[in-house]
Hints:
By secondary structure, this protein is of the alpha/beta class. The protein has helices at about 35-40, 55-60, 65-75, 90-105, 125-140, 155-160, 175-185, 220-230, 250-255, 280-285, 335-345, 360-365, 395-405; strands spanning about 10-15, 15-20, 20-25, 45-50, 110-120, 145-150, 170-175, 195-200, 205, 240, 260-265, 290-295, 305, 315, 355.
Amino acid sequence: MTDKSVDDFRVRLGGRELVPIMIGGMGVDISTADLALTAARLGGIGHISDAMVKTITDRRYDTQYVKEKTKLYKSHADKPDKSAVQFNLGRLAEATRLHVGKTMEAKRGDGLVFINCMEKLTMNAPKETLRVRLRAALDAGIDGITLAAGLHLGSFALIEDHPRFRDAKLGIIVSSLRAFQLFLRKSARTHRLPDYVVVEGPLAGGHLGFGMDWAQYDLASIVAEILRWLKAEHLDIPVIPAGGIFTGRDAVDFLESGAAAVQVATRFTVTHECGLPDAVKQEYFKAKEEDIEVNETSPTGYPMRMLKNSPALGSGIRPNCEAYGYLLDANGSCAYIRAYNLAVAARPDAEKISVVDKICLCTHMRNFNCWTCGATTYRLKDTTVKNADGTYRLLSAEHVFKDYQFTKGNQITLPR
Ligand SMILES: Cc1cc2nc3c(=O)[nH]c(=O)nc-3n(C[C@H](O)[C@H](O)[C@H](O)COP(=O)(O)O)c2cc1C
C-alpha cells in the first residue's frame, strides 16, 4: 500500500508547478468565485462557471440584466415559440467580463482560476453566444477555459483568432476516448492541442456524458484507455480524472497510475464557500445512498444526477425563457416548454399542474431547487461532525482541499 499523499505530486500547467487538485465547475454559481479563489490561493486550480452569468452578476454586482431582458420580452410569455427571445450579445459579453474580471482581480497565490463553459447552454443561438462567452472570458483575463457538456467540435475555431488563444490554458471534459479523438480531429485545423483533458466518469455530479446505462462504465478503465492511446500517439496531454474521487487515497491511486491531477467537486458542496444555500447543504449531508438518482428530466437530453427530494422534480412552473432562456435550442425551443404545454393541454382548467418528465432547469437551478450532486454525496456526513442542534457542521474549502492534499490512506480529517 502506498504511503504517498497528493502533496507528493505536482502538475505542470502554464509553466507552473501546481498542487494537482482541480475543483470542478458547478453551475449555477455553486462553484463560486470564493471557492475557486481558495483553490488558487492554496496552489491548485479552481473553476467558476459561466452558466446563467447574468443572474450571477445581478446577484453579486447589482446589475439588472435579467430585469432588462424580461421587460423586453414580456409579451412572449404565453407563446410556445421563443425564437424571438434572443440574448443581447453585447450584454452577454459585458456580464461575462464582469464575472471573470472581478474574480481575477481578487486572485491571490500561485494557483489558477479557470471557467467552465457548457456547450449545452445553447441560448437560442448556440454558436454566436458560445463565441461571445469564450472570447469575453479570455478578454477579462481568465487563466483557462474548460469546455464542458458537449463535444465542442467547433469551439477552438470560435476563438482561434483571439490574441490569448495560445497563452490561455484550454481543456475539455470527455467521458470516452471516442469523444476525445473526435474533438482532437475536428480541432486539428487550429494547430493547437488542449492543455489538459478532464476525463469524467459516471459517478460525477451534474450532467453525465453517458446514457442511462452509465452504471456499466467505470472511471479507472476509461482513464487507462485514454492514457494508453496518448502514449501510443506520443501525445503529452495531462489527463485529469473526475467523478467519485472522495479521499486523498482515491486521488493518489489515479496519480500513481499516470493521471496528472484530479478534478473533484462533491466534497466542496458542503463548504462555506459553495454557493448553495445552507439549508440545501444540510440536504446533501443528510442524503442516504438511496436518496440519489440519475434521471432524464434535464431538458438538455443528458442524464443528470440529483437528490430525489429536489423541489424541481414534478414542479409545473411556467417556463421563464423571457428572463433566462439558457437552454433554448437554435429554433427557440426547449424540451421543458414542450412538456409543460402538453401538461397544460391535458388539464386546461387546473390551477396548478405538475410536469413529471422534464424540469425547468434554468429557473430551478437559479433558485437552487435542482439539487444535482455526485454519487458519493451520501458519504458527506462522514466528513464532518454534528452540531448540538443535530445539523452537520459546514466545512471550510481550505479544510477540504488540505484533506485531499495531505491526508494519507483512506482517512478523512474531521474539522476541529
Ligand atoms: C453540484 C454539482 C454541480 C455540477 N455542475 C457542473 C457544471 O455546471 N458543469 C460541469 O461541467 N460539471 C459540473 N459538475 C461536475 C463537476 O465539475 C465534477 O467534474 C464532478 O462532479 C467530479 O466528481 P465528484 O463530484 O464525485 O468529485 C457538477 C458537480 C456537482 C456536484
